[in-house]
Amino acid sequence: MSRVGRAPIPVPDGVQVAIDDRHVTVVGPGGSLERTLPEGVSILDAGGKIEVSRANDERRTRALHGLSRALVANMVTGVTSGYTKELEIVGVGYRATAKGPHQLDLALGFSHPVAVTAPEGVSFEVPAPTRILVRGIDKEKVGQAAADIRRLRKPEPYKGKGIRYAGEKVTRKAGKAAK
Q: How many whole angstroms separate alpha carbon 42 and alpha carbon 53?
């Protein structure tokens, strides 16, 4: 049995979990999330914790067992404490400005500023011109929004300029050697 899928998911106080066959709804202080689990995986509420089980031992079902458990655990964590991704901007003249909680203007060395709109359920914060915080309750949406921003100007290997995740290590290459 999957080690991840076998672990029960604790449900903290203030969080309600509604299970309808394979459809799961989690409501908490941060908001509400819904998901339909794949075929072959079942979920049940066992008094203060949630358990995920699988119907058979086929390869695909075994893979989906641990995935489904992790997705439901992420939903519970999201509605209680939420998720945050931090991005750093490196480069002379590169900066971010917030135009409300759902709009960013990025100066990334292009001829015009790049406008970024947050997907539903995600918000942006700019505590410093070179730092961006992406917040939300859905881990997938937060990660995708951060990846979309990073994709606008990936860190390049020669000078290290670009947008990177906080703590991301960029391997530098040597430039041309002078004769």
A: 5
Question: Which amino acid is residue 60, in one-letter code?
Answer: R
Count of C-beta atoms within a 10 Å radius of residue 115: 10
HSE-CB of 123 using CA atoms within 13 angstroms: 6
Query: In this predicted model, what pLDDT tens digit does every residue of 102-126 receive, in sequence order?
Result: 999 999 999 999 999 999 999 999 9
Residues 6+ apart with CB under 8 A from 143: 83, 85
Closest CA to 40 of 15, 57, 23: 57
Going by the DSSP 8-state scheme, the letter that residue 158 receives in this structure is T
Specify the DSSP class assigned to residue 7: S
Q: What is the pTM of this model?
A: 0.89
The answer to whether 69 and 51 have CB atoms below 8 angstroms apart is no
Residue 140, both tokens: 């997938």
Residue of 75, 66, 52 whose CA lies nearest to 139: 75
Contact 164, 155 (CB under 8 A): yes
pLDDT in tens, 4-58: 888 999 999 999 999 998 899 999 999 999 999 999 999 988 888 999 999 898 9
**CA geometry: angle 5, 64, 22, nearest 5 deg:** 90
